[in-house]
Design brief:
By secondary structure, the chain is α+β, with helices and mostly antiparallel strands. It is 38% helix and 16% strand. Strands 4-1-3-2-5 form a 5-stranded antiparallel beta sheet, with helices on both faces. α1 packs antiparallel against α2. The chain is globular. The two termini are 22 Å apart.
């Protein structure tokens, strides 16, 4: 599980279309580039949580690329939107926080924590109502998503990367279980935790 926080906890990651496009595009590009499997993500206004599997041992490179590209896109967007203001950085000066999930119970717990974070912070009464980037077990049944390249930072003449494609998949620890039943079990757990804890 990876957590990244905005500088001074400012709301740089608001759930608006351009931010969602930037984050999804960068996330899918970074995952493909560094061999990362994506399992769940939530993007709140001042931080994000990401459940992933680092298949090549290059998590630091993945996060460096992801952080840099999201930040550069957002900074260009902010300069365009607010030409009289100056924003120098997006992320806090500390590095990302990563937590190794060593067993099935830990994976289940942090998947629930990630998906339900918007309820825990009292932003929406039901997690499916969160208007920002939120992907979890229900997305494991979906085909790959395609996201158009943002008009910021990236080379707009690069035809190869005009679109980024990616998907969310179950953690490898659960690979021996039929996917529909696995997803149904996780969704039932999400609903149970949401109703009992918050």
């Amino acid at each position: 599980m990876v957590t990244r926080t905005c500088d001074l906890r400012r709301f740089y990651l608001r759930p608006v279309p351009v931010v969602k496009q930037i984050v999804r595009y960068c996330l899918f590009r970074a995952a493909a580039k560094y061999g990362v499997l994506l399992h769940a993500v939530i993007l709140l206004s001042n931080h994000f949580h990401l459940i992933l599997t680092d298949t090549t041992g290059r998590l630091d490179l993945f996060m460096a690329w992801l952080d840099r590209c999201i930040a550069n896109c957002l900074l260009e967007n902010f300069r365009e939107q607010y030409p009289d203001r100056y924003t120098e950085t997006i992320w806090c000066d500390r590095s990302y926080n990563d937590l190794l999930l060593t067993n099935h119970a830990a994976v289940r717990d942090k998947l629930c924590y990630t998906v339900l974070n918007c309820i825990k912070d009292r932003l929406v009464p039901k997690y499916k109502q969160w208007p920002g980037v939120l992907h979890g077990p229900a997305d494991w049944l979906q085909p790959p998503m395609e996201v158009s390249r943002p008009e910021y930072f990236f080379d707009q003449t690069d035809e190869e990367h005009a679109v980024a494609s990616g998907r969310f998949v179950p953690p490898p620890q659960f690979g021996d279980r039929p996917l529909p039943g696995l997803v149904e079990g996780f969704c039932q757990q999400l609903n149970a935790v949401a109703s009992s804890n918050w």
